Amino acid sequence: MTLTPSLRLAGLVVVAVALACGSDVRAYLKLGSRVASGVVQTKWQPNQIPVQYYVTNRNVPGVTAAQLQATLDRAFGTWSSVQTAAISSQFVAFVANEPGDNDNRSVIGFRSRPDLDNKVLGTTSFRLDDQTGRIIESDILLNAAMNWSVAATGEPGRYDVESIALHEIGHLLGLGHSALGETELASGGRSIRGKRTVMFPIAYPSGNVEDRTLKADDIAGISDVYPTPAFQADTGAVSGRVTLNGAGIFGAHVTAFNLNTGDLVGGFSLNERGEFVVGGLAPGLYVVRAEPLDDVDVSAFFDPDSPVTINFKPAYYERLVAVPAGGSSGSIEIKVPSK
User: Fold this and answer.
1) What SS3 state is found at 68?
2) Which CATH number do you get for residue 68?
3) Residues 189 and 55 in one domain
4) C-alpha angle 89/212/90, rounded to 5°?
5) What share of the chain is helix, strand, coil (3-state, %, to 5)?
6) What does the alpha-carbon distance between residue 317 and residue 294 come to, in Å, rounded to a whole number?
7) Contact 198, 247 (CB under 8 A)
8) How far apart are CA 63 and CA 336, in angstroms?
9) What single string gives the DSSP state of each residue in 197-246?
10) 8 A C-beta contact, residue 115 and residue 77
11) Which of 89, 108, 118, 112 has its CA nearest to residue 5?
């Protein structure tokens, strides 16, 4: 997947599909692929953890290969430090291999790709077993055409390696994009006004280091993909349907706001009945809202063939929703008006 500075984090080679199966629709869009038996989730299997990665032995202005590796180690460590997620990583070696080579190694590095959009900061790609969907390798390319920095507090005019790496590693671990962000039209595309997640598909401007820290939405996402027993026992979910004139809506963005902590976690309605589950929520009372994906590129979230509906207005559920530990709120219906 991709980023720009209004920059997008480039697209995945697997289909970003909704793994919706009845009520088993969780907090995040997960990455998936179509295989002979159907759709399977793109994630590392227990015998592939810790996830092993290699670093291309190439320096770019402002960042050496050794600095890149140290930064990647911190970014992987940020994901691994989530206590409710059972995931870890291991650096193996510096290599001459390039990200994008079919070499059975997960390689991360700087590479010049003049064929990419000149606003692409980074891309994550996968090679999968076409029978089982098992990950063979996942590579991250950081665009060497951009200016980069590993400075502790950022550097004007240069993009922060750790921030962009944290986003791309989220993809490498199986997360799709989150929609918890606001943009506005600007020359050459959209610029970011603010966001509550590292996994929003548009990056902060150069010099900014805010995306070095995971937010509640990111934590819910990675915990959903690699759940620990504590995650399943200690958190709950809001579930229900988003409807327009009684009919379900596919692709509505649903958010749950915790009145006590101020945490915000998002999800999507992922079938034509408009069913959703927003999981990974601390027990408590929530304000729940549904909105259309009408200020972002829908293709950053869904396969182009998905029947996403955006022709409706945002709406709140009429009451506060109580979320219990280890369970669900019970089914609610968010009735949205047409535009």
Assistant:
1) helix
2) 3.40.390.10
3) yes
4) 10
5) 15, 35, 45
6) 20
7) no
8) 49
9) -TTSSBPPPTT--GGGS--HHHHHHHHHHSB-HHHHHH-EEEEEEEEETT
10) no
11) 118
Q: Which letter, b or e, does each residue of 319-331 get, where b requires 16 or more Cβ atoms within 10 Å of its Cβ?
A: eebebeeeebbee
Q: What is the pLDDT of residues 227-258, one digit of tens each?
A: 999 999 999 999 999 999 999 999 999 999 99
Q: Domain for residue 226, yes or no?
A: no
- Co-location of 149 and 274 in the same domain: no
Amino acid letter for position 32: G
Q: Cα angle vertex 51, ends 48, 54, to 5°?
A: 125
Q: Is residue 97 included in any domain, yes or no?
A: yes
Angle between helices 216-225 and 161-172 (to 10 degrees): 30
* Phi, psi for 11 (deg, rounded to 5): -80, 150
Same domain, 280 and 160: no
CB atoms within 10 A of CB 65: 17
* pLDDT 10s digits, 276-308: 999 999 999 999 999 999 888 888 888 888 899
Q: Are residues 69 and 215 in the same domain?
A: yes
The residue with tokens 């980023």 is 3
Contact 130, 35 (CB under 8 A): yes
Give yes or no: residues 131 and 271 share one domain. no
User: How many structural domains are present in the chain?
Assistant: 2
For the chain, give the longest Cα–Cα distance.
58
CATH code (residue 287): 2.60.40.1120
Report the alpha-carbon distance of residue 256 to residue 264 in Å, rounded.
6
Same domain, 242 and 173: no
Q: What is the pLDDT, as a whole number, of residue 47?
A: 97
Q: Is 192 exposed, middle or buried (0-12, 13-18, 19+ CB in 10 A)?
A: buried
Whole-angstrom distance, CA of residue 139 vs CA of residue 169: 9
Q: What is the pLDDT of residue 281?
A: 96
Q: Which two tokens stand for residue 145?
A: 């055409």
- Domain range for 314 is 235-335
Q: What is the DSSP string of 45-67?
A: -GGG-SEEEEEE---BTTB-HHH
> In this predicted structure, what is the pLDDT of residue 188?
64
What is the Cα–Cα distance from 303 to 1, expressed in whole angstroms?
12
